[in-house]
Amino acid sequence: MVSVDPKAYPQVVLIATSIASGENPQSQFIVRRLLVPNPEAKRVSMIASCLMATQEQQQYVVRSIKKRVSEEA
What we know:
mainly alpha, two-stranded antiparallel ribbon, about 70 residues, elongated, 2 strands
C-alpha cells in the first residue's frame, strides 16, 4: 500500500465517510491515514502466486515485496 496524494484527500475522505455512515448521518469518523493499493506490488505478488500454483499441495505466504535499488553513483 502507498499513501494517497494529499491533493486527493478531501474527495477520498468525503466518499469514504459517506459510505461508512450509511443511513446514520449523525455518525462521526476520524480518518488517520489514507492508503491505496500499490500496483507494482500487486503485479509481483500475482506473478509469484501463478508460479507457485504449479507446485502441488504447497502453501506460500508473501510477507514482503522489496524493490532492488541499483548501487550506481
